[in-house]
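Page 42, continued from yesterday. The earlier attempt failed because a stray header line got pasted into the input along with the sequence. Redoing it now with the clean sequence only.
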Amino acid sequence: MTDTVRPAEEVVADVAERLVGYVVRYEAERDSRAVFAYLYLQLTRSLATALSVGDPVFRDPSWVADLAENLAGEYFAASDAMDTWAATSGTTQQSPVAPEELPDTVPEPWREVFAAISGGRSYVLEDALFSMMAHITYDLPVAMRRMAATSDVANHIADFHQMNDVLGRAIDFVQDDLASRYCWWLADLDRIVARNDELLSNYGIRVSRGMAWFNFSRLTDPAAAEDAERSIRTSTGAFIRQVREPDWWALRAVTRAGRLLVPERRRWPSAGSIP
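This time it went through. Structure tokens are written below.
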């Protein structure tokens, strides 16, 4: 008797279903992490649909599903570690924290993200951008390195780029969906983050995931692994600081003034209203 191989679309759909639980919980708690969880949910659903209808045609759908599952595992582990620490420390999402206060069980990029969006100090666009940065630049190469221990990841680059096509095509719709769900003025907030929202675009998805593949290759090269590890650990924090405190003094002054003048204008949907 042989084990039944589950269809790839079912595996990815299960990842999406698990993400629903995070969205529902974070929204109920008025937790800023809901924004990225919802974005991630919709992108994962887009991938599940693509696998279901066969457009595009992946060479190895099971590998695509495996990557989606492993990548989500990195996100779930970081989020759960943060929740465990918050529960034991009595910290809530409304409590501002610094990255150094968070435990080592949370990867460094996610510590930077959680600190940046805690205490009601972030805009909806930042909640999405900062988390996306950590997930793509850190979680993705780490997940592929983990998979490389048991499979030849490098031979699946064609399917990897097909995934980029699916996610890239979906991102414009997802950004509009975020605006209607959490902040009708999301486009206006581009000015506050100094036009750093390219990551949430078709082009940005492709470029950032391409860089993640490059860093995965470096992680598996003994001569480059140390530099690659340092790079993926620190890039998210550097990005957050560049958004919050740009190097150019004039842009930094404008950004600070904008944050003082423009309220966060966040809204929360009705409990459990996941489309």
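Notes: The first helix runs from residue 8 to 28.
Reminder to self: strip header lines before submitting.
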